[in-house]
Amino acid sequence: MTTTKIPPVDIEEKKDGYVLNAEMPGLNEKDVNVYVEKHVLHIDSLKKVEDEKCECDRKYLVKERNFSHFERSFTLPEDAKVDEISASFKDGMLTLNIPKVAQAQPRKIEIKAN
Fold it and tell me: Does residue 76 contact residue 82 with C-beta atoms inside 8 Å?
């Protein structure tokens, strides 16, 4: 049986970039795929549910703790540097750091007399 459970995600804007945190209990970095295509960030996972391989006599009344499959997509802001996104995974939390393109600073243009 394949189940779908979407992990909760927070996206925070900071001065120099964005931080995405996704809770993924029971998964590790090898279970998750992260990629960017056409300025859309994709996060997905397909993990075999342990009980499918188990030939034991377990009978659950409620079973909510396993992810087996999910997909999430987020359109990135125009100022996101997609080539510099970094990812880390610790204690069931996926963290993506998405830097911003530096804003052009206004500069004064000198006018010369002819």
Answer: yes
Task: Determine how many CB atoms are found less than 10 A away from the CB of residue 113.
Answer: 3
Q: Considering only CA atoms, which of 35, 39, 103, 21 is closest in space to residue 76?
A: 39
**What is the domain count for the chain?**
1
pLDDT in tens, 39-93: 999 999 987 666 555 567 778 888 766 656 889 999 999 999 999 999 999 999 9
In a domain, 106, yes or no: no
- 17 falls within a domain: yes
Question: Does residue 87 lie within any of the structural domains?
Answer: yes
Residues in the chain: 114
pTM above 0.85, yes or no: no
d(CA 69, CA 2): 7
